[in-house]
Design a protein that fits this description.
Order of helices and strands of chain B: EEEHEEHEHEHEHEHEHH
Shape of chain A: globular
Shape of chain B: globular
Helix content of chain A: 40-55%
Strand content of chain B: 5-15%
Number of strands of chain B: 10
Oligomer: heterodimer
Radius of gyration of chain A: 20 Å
Strand order of the largest sheet of chain B: 5-4-3-10-9
Distance between the termini of chain B: 42 Å
Number of helices of chain A: 15
Number of strands of chain A: 9
Largest interface: A-B, 33 and 34 residues
Radius of gyration of chain B: 20 Å
Chain lengths: 373, 256
């Protein structure tokens, strides 16, 4: 079977750009009426031709979101367990060249931090590390998952790319979901953005979600870091990636994350900043293309933006977020991976959701592989 | 005319089952229960919290819980979730959902029948969620299912009785109650299922995603009752528009 990278080669950059540039209003209206969208339709809905129809897109996205997800939004929170990193991603606060102090939590510290999160009432947690295979090894991540699993219904990871066997190791330790941001689906740009470090291997990262699916991961999340490449390119490739994974691994829940680049430690000029209207076009077109896929919006986005995106398709948000390592139960390091703009606690987020007619759901998973008496 | 509805040895007065997902607030559930008149309510084990906090705490004590195995991809996983449901105090009724295609959420008939067999042996009252496939339905019934729950349309779509013909066959052929589950979007569609002879309907999305879930619950209650009464009464002959009152050239006119 071909992998996603081989499939993506059938959608060269020029083809994507040509379809988007030549998209007509008629094509937009047809796509909006279709029950099932093909990748070409998705591209049309992301195109400039769809921009004047943003309200129609929003109405359709709202209807689909209500139908498949109701008025319920899942809450989770990230737990950064190490920010030691050997990569030099030009846009990232954990860049190895940044001289900030680093922290690497031991198992007792991880459990202490996790207990604070569990006490906040959350049951879905996402473990994150920098890319430092020797220090934050797959075994270290698995040990962390095993240690905190009794406290949570769901443990996810957002870590560097692993091999299929390493994903199996994590699954055996209780991990049920993995998120992998490709950052950009433009290989040349990717190469420039990642001057050194293991993350430089574009293909290994691109095919990581598929390796996780083969290993038996229940839930996958993909996403591009919007703002690096031209909007239409990475927006389309993200949806295509999720669509392809769903077609080939139908038992796996595939969701999308929608990070938009923001300021960080050091200086980085955002090459293709994505404005709010375009961002909304992205979320709503994605909802139309993948009606049953969860869409995660992190606290990079403002409270205002997050609250308004929920009726349009966002089904999962973080709350009570810290992107620093430690800080809840143990001493914090000084700076996070990126600046968060929505600082709301779990209680505040729950109240805000109720205010717009939505329910915060803290538990939406039960590991069916656990044996009960 | 007496019209008893016995399911798993229990007599139920309401033929409307409801769900707990997709609500804007779980505290709507008691009012929906009351307005619907339902006695059976399904809840996904993935939503059930330890100590029955959260969603279960909002379900009135008078309701009979029908926990479901949402998230299971194999018979083994469904069995594990059913045992968890029992251990968590959710009772012995279980709705089996085994779904290994999360894009369409269509039930896996083979795994569902296997799970039915295993759970009946463990003393559960088993209600399998199935495609309206006669062979799968028979396998579940042979394994001891208390009812079968065929889908009217893919779950959550509100598209109504797209599988009407197949559900009709199950109603005709099976000796257990047929509870139409999934896809019912409007009270008129629930009414139609009941007119066909379905024993009951399970409705979640159409109520939960309504702008006024309590009123919609009341509407479904009336529709299910109306459909059941119509089925009991027996429909009269119906003429299609334009259909001639009498055939102009009788085919039996030669009989003198």
């Amino acid at each position: 079977m071909e992998n996603f990278e081989q499939f993506l080669a059938k959608w060269p950059r020029e083809r994507r750009a040509r379809i988007a540039e030549n998209a007509t209003e008629e094509q937009v209206l047809v796509a909006l009426r279709k029950d099932t969208l093909q990748p070409e339709d998705f591209l049309v809905l992301l195109s400039p031709a769809a921009a004047p129809h943003l309200e129609d897109l929003a109405q359709r996205a709202h209807e689909l979101t209500l139908r498949y997800f109701g008025r319920a939004v899942n809450l989770f929170t990230p737990l950064y367990i190490s920010d030691v990193c050997t990569n030099q991603c030009r846009y990232c606060g954990f860049n190895a060249k940044n001289t900030q102090p680093r922290r690497h939590l031991n198992m007792d510290e991880i459990e202490a931090e996790a207990r604070v999160i569990a006490d906040m009432g959350l049951q879905h947690i996402l473990l994150l590390t920098g890319d430092a295979r020797k220090l934050s090894s797959p075994e270290y991540i698995a040990d962390a998952a095993r240690r905190i699993k009794p406290l949570f219904a769901s443990v996810g990871v957002e870590v560097y790319s692993l091999t299929e066997d390493e994903y199996r190791l994590l699954i055996a330790a209780g991990v049920d979901s993995m998120t992998m941001f490709q950052e950009t689906y433009n290989p040349e740009l990717y190469d420039w953005l990642h001057p050194a470090g293991p993350k430089k291997d574009y293909s290994f990262r691109l095919n990581a979600p598929e390796r996780a699916a083969r290993a038996g991961m229940r839930s996958l999340g993909v996403g591009a870091l919007l703002g690096l490449d031209e909007f239409i390119q990475d927006a389309f490739c993200t949806g295509l990636h999720a669509w392809w994974l769903m077609r080939h691994y139908p038992g796996v829940d595939v969701g999308i994350s929608i990070p938009r680049i923001c300021s960080h430690e050091g200086s980085f000029d955002i090459p293709h900043a994505v404005g709010d209207r375009q961002f909304v076009q992205y979320v709503t077109a994605m909802r139309c293309f993948l009606p049953r896929s969860g869409i995660t919006c992190s606290s990079r986005e403002s409270a205002f933006m997050r609250d308004h995106l929920i009726p349009l398709g966002v089904t999962r948000v973080s709350a009570g977020v810290s992107t620093a390592v430690g800080g809840r139960a143990t001493e914090a390091d000084n700076s996070g991976q990126f600046d968060i703009t929505d600082h709301r606690s779990v209680e505040e987020m729950t109240a805000a959701l109720a205010g717009i007619g939505y329910q915060a759901v803290v538990k939406d998973w039960e590991d069916p592989t656990t044996t009960h008496a | 005319m007496e019209d008893k509805f016995i399911l798993g040895g229990v007599e139920l007065k309401s033929r409307l089952f409801i769900g707990t997902g997709k609500y804007s607030a779980d505290n709507l559930i008691p009012a929906v229960c009351e307005a619907s008149g339902a006695e059976v309510i399904t809840v996904a084990m993935r939503r059930v919290e330890k100590g029955q906090q959260g969603i279960v705490a909002h379900i009135p004590r008078s309701m009979r819980l029908l926990p479901n195995t949402s998230g299971a991809r194999t018979a083994d996983e469904a069995v594990r979730l059913a045992r968890l449901a029992r251990a968590a105090g959710c009772g012995d009724w279980i709705k089996i959902e085994v779904i290994s295609d999360v894009r369409h959420l269509l039930p896996d008939g083979y795994e569902t029948a296997k799970a039915t067999e295993a759970l009946v042996k463990e003393g559960f009252t088993v209600l399998p969620y199935i495609n309206p496939d006669l062979y799968v339905a028979r396998a579940c019934v042979d394994a001891g299912a208390a009812a079968v729950m065929p889908l009217g349309a893919p779950i959550g779509t509100n598209r109504g009785l797209r599988t009407k013909e197949m559900i009709g066959i199950l109603i005709d052929e099976l000796d257990v109650p047929v509870v139409v589950d999934a896809g019912i979007g409007r009270p008129s569609q629930a009414c139609e299922a009941m007119e066909m002879g379905a024993a009951a309907c399970l409705v979640n999305t159409a109520i939960a995603s309504s702008a006024d879930p309590v009123r919609m619950a009341a509407a479904f209650r009336a529709a299910v009752e109306a459909g059941r009464n119509a089925w009991l009464a027996g429909a009269g002959a119906v003429k299609a528009p334009g259909e001639a009152a009498e055939a102009s050239s009788p085919l039996t006119g030669f009989l003198r």
